[in-house]
Fold this protein.
Amino acid sequence: MNILICSKNSAFCSQMIQRLKKERHEIYLITGSTGTASPEQEKSGAFQEYRFSYSNEYLSRIMRNANPDLLLILGAFDPLYSWRDEQKQSIEYISGMTNLLMAAKNSGVERVVYLSTLDVFEGNAQEVLDRATAPVPESLRLRTLVRAEALCSEFSDEEMQIAVVRLPLVYGASEKLQGRDVCLRMVNEYLEDGQIQCRPFDEHTAMYLGDAVEVVCTLAKTETLQPLYQLRGHTFSEDWLAQELLSMNLKEGACVLKEEGEALPNPAARVADTQEEELHFRMRYSMQEGIHKLCETCLQAQRKAQKQEKKEKSFWSNWGLPVLESVLLFLVIHIISLLLHNTWVGENLNLYVLYVLAIAVTYGTGHALFATVLGAGAQLSLFVMDHSLSAVLTDYGFFIGVLQMLVIGVMGGYMRDKYKRKNQDLADENAYLSSELSDITRINDSNLVVKDIYEKRLVSYKNSLAKIYEITSELDFMESRKVIFRAVHVISQLMEMKDVAIYISSRHSSFFRLAAASTQLAASAGKSLRYDENSYLFSALSQREVYQNQRMEEGKPTFAGGVYEDEAVTAIVMVWTNELEKINLYQSNLLVLLCRLIEKAIHRAVLYEESVYQNSYLEGSRIMKEDAFKTVIETFREGKSQGLLSYTLLEVELDGKQPSVIEKLVRDTDVIGMLEGKPCVLLANSSVQDAQFVVKRFEENGVVPTIADESLQIGA
């Protein structure tokens, strides 16, 4: 099974990945940030790691590539959100959640698990809390989490199951997994200075990290997810936790500093409706075992940090190794100088100056002074080989050589130390600015989504009355038979959706026939549409409301609106789209407005068509006179040329039979007429292939039909 996890890497995330990998799942990870991966993040263990913001526009593509069977959003336990600036983080959180769920919907993800927290009940005053209890969050962070739960409920449907899992405080890692991790705080206070701050009567509900991972893994294997799961964990007091830490005797002289005050309520302890039995889940770690494991984890983290700090302060790494390298290089230079002694190269090239400069540039001023001493001693030994020791005092060349090494070494070392400090400052500044840029980028990504939506709306609002009136008013001055075709283009243009169809009511039945469709998708509801009390459109259209396909069911339009005459529906406008950002109240209201504005023109077109049909039949039959039939053919020809409909024209040989025979063999939406003295049948919204079924039916009843040639079909 492919599982896509949305979380910055943490102990919770890493343990979950390792646990799921043992069950041979393929794990993908979206970190939510675009910064450079740290060493800890590189060890996440995921098969593929995507360093993209949750608000990134390419998330749909990532999900299609990963093709996950389960999307796991850590949510309240995602360390990406520090919640130091709650206002900013709240905007990022909701925009990220919205984008993740929309991308999952577009990518066909069938199951989503979102982790929330029982802290959302912090403001509830009820004695007993269950799944039906509405949470009352007080802080902005928890209000944001409740809004995220509501988003999950809105996106959940038959095609995409979304389960919200409310967990208690999860402890067991050396970094915070939740906003108020009292266990980690008290353990760190105990291990660092031995002074444990606690409010004795305050109670908390917690679950060890290993148990929380087991819960998520159990849900990953659950085929049918419920909308909400609540798990309570163990309840403990801060006084109990302090005494438990003291009993470990890990810190000499440890004490407990108790704060005065009334005990704070713990709503999580009142959660009664939990699903441990339904999930066949039993916690493996008691509170005592969990605290002992947390202490071990924190001690390991402290030892690792101390080891790293000792390594950074180590004499060997800072001085021993550089001195050894300086001495080895000096020996090499000294041997070369001995070999070149009393030669032209040795007399004109001072290799010790180059040696001091190399050490100064590599290790700085301190090591440069040490190299200068070595170089001066070597030069003294070479001088004594050719002169007496007393001659050194009168040889100015020797002192100038030593001074030269000293000046070059000090200057080179000083410049090296200066630029090293400058580069460190720049690196710190760059790290700070990179983190700020990352925050700004996430905010910008979320704002861009909102901006694009509102920009389009503002552009439309800016001149909407003028634009809509100008475009729709064109329909009032067009020929009646062209109105319906033009109305399709008007609705498509104003709603910015290319798939639009219009169905016109039938004169003889409850069926609506397809009058025009801009694409094949728009015509996918059928060539005729039954509209009665059993129709899925009836409930909305009978109330003069817009039908909206909220569950994105196949074979049904995204929006459908009615054109009315008094209380009767005379036409139905269908709009189709797969773009989720366009499925909103604005588009729904716009369709209502357009249906009202084109109502007059549509009525005029329908009345014209009815008048053409009613006054043009041969007496006592459904067969149209030749002039009226040519007008009908011309109407269909124009619609076909615009790609809005199709038709097929059949010439019929009656072989002595009465023309009334044909009337029983065609649909109500088909048209029978005389053309050049011969009876013909116009099959509405039928291709040549579709017409074969009608041809066969005619032949079975002794009528010989022939598909008319192209010139005749287009009414030439």
Q: What stands out?
A: The mean pLDDT is 81.
